[in-house]
Amino acid sequence: MIGESTAAGVGVQHHHQGLAAHTARALATRLRRPVHWHTLGVNGIRAAALLEHLRQHPFHEPADLAIISLGVNDTTDLTTTRQYRRALNQLIDTLRQHQPGLPVYLLALPPMQHFTALPAPLRQLLGHRATRLDREQHTLAARLNGVYHLAYPAVQEAEYLAEDGYHPSEKGYRYIGERVAARVV
C-alpha cells in the first residue's frame, strides 16, 4: 500500500491500527493464509511527490498487488486533473517497472464533503474537487489493463472518524480495510 496519510495511518496511535494493517489482516482471513505487506505512506504527500520518492527508492520485492491511496492532498493543493492523471499514470508505470502486469488498485478519494473538520462551504468545494480527481482514477482504471478502481466505503458514523474529524479512526480503518480486502480477492 502506498499513498498519503491514510496509507501512513494518520488518525491512530499505532501503525497496526491503520488501513494497511487492517487490509492485510482482512486479506489473511479471506485467503486463509499469512499475508506479508509493506506500506509507504507519507502524510501530506501529493501524487507527483510520491512518484519522485518511488523513483528514488523503488520497491524491489515481488508483490501480488499494489493499493494506492492518494488524492486528498492533490485536492486541497489544487492540483489540476491533468497533472494528477499524469502523475498517477507514471506512478503505476514505476510500480510495474520491476514487475510488469502487477495488479494495481486505486482507492477512490474519500467524500470530502463529509469531513467534519472542514467548514461549509469549503467542505462542499473540496468534495466537488475530490470527485473530479476521482473521475480521473476511474478513467485510468478503465483504460489500463490490470488497474482497478475501488469505491471508497461510505463512512458516515462519527466513530469512524479520528478526533481530528479528517482521518479515519481505528474503527474506520478496519471498516475500510475489510471492504478493500473483499474487493481485491
Sequence-ordered SSE layout with sheet pairings:
Elements (H helix, E strand, L loop, with lengths): L1 E2 L1 H4 L10 H13 L8 E2 L5 H10 L9 E4 L2 H5 L4 H15 L8 E4 L14 H22 L3 E4 L19 H15 L1
Parallel strand pairs: 1-2, 1-3, 3-4, 4-5
Provide an overview of this structure.
With about 180 residues, the protein is α/β, with parallel strands linked by helices. The chain has one domain (about 1-185): SGNH hydrolase (Rossmann fold, 3-Layer(aba) Sandwich). Helices cover about 45% and strands about 10% of the residues. It has 7 helices and 5 strands, in the order E-H-H-E-H-E-H-H-E-H-E-H. The protein has a 5-stranded parallel sheet with strand order 2-1-3-4-5. Helix 6 (about 120-145) links the parallel strand 4 (about 105) and strand 5. The longest helix has 22 residues, at about 120-145. The chain is globular. The relative contact order is 0.19. The mean pLDDT is about 95.
**Which structural class should the secondary elements be placed in?**
alpha/beta
CATH topology: Rossmann fold
Domains, number: 1
Going across the biggest sheet, name each strand in turn.
Answer: 2-1-3-4-5
**What low-confidence regions span 5 or more consecutive residues with pLDDT below 50?**
none
Roughly what is the average pLDDT, rounded to an integer?
94
Short description:
The protein is an alpha/beta fold and 185 residues long. It has 7 helices and 5 strands, in the order E-H-H-E-H-E-H-H-E-H-E-H.
Keywords:
Rossmann fold, 5 strands, single chain, 9% strand, alpha/beta, five-stranded parallel beta sheet, 185 residues
